[in-house]
Write a structure and sequence with these properties.
With 74 residues, this protein is an alpha+beta fold. It has helices at residues 3-26, 56-59; strands spanning 33-37, 43-47, 62-66. It has a three-stranded antiparallel sheet, with helices on one face.
């Protein structure tokens, strides 16, 4: 397997892991969960509630957003 292929698989696995974390966190949050792509190809999950408004530099790095799933409407 070529290095480029291994890098793509690793990147895909990192994205899938971050996406899974975002989906799990969203079930227990009122806030959207964002998967952010870092410059080194890693992915992190952040809770929108941690920020007043996402800074522009962070918005540009959002790879995927999972809407918050908690609701206080009955």
């Amino acid at each position: 397997m070529a290095y480029g292929s291994m890098q793509r698989i690793t990147t895909e696995m990192a994205f899938e892991a971050a996406l899974k974390r975002a989906q799990e966190r969203a079930q227990h949050s009122f806030f959207d969960q964002h998967v952010i792509e870092e410059s080194d190809g890693e992915y992190v999950t952040i809770d929108e509630g941690d920020y007043d408004a996402l800074p522009a530099w962070m918005v540009d790095k959002v790879a995927y957003t999972v809407p918050g799933m908690m609701s206080d409407e009955f």
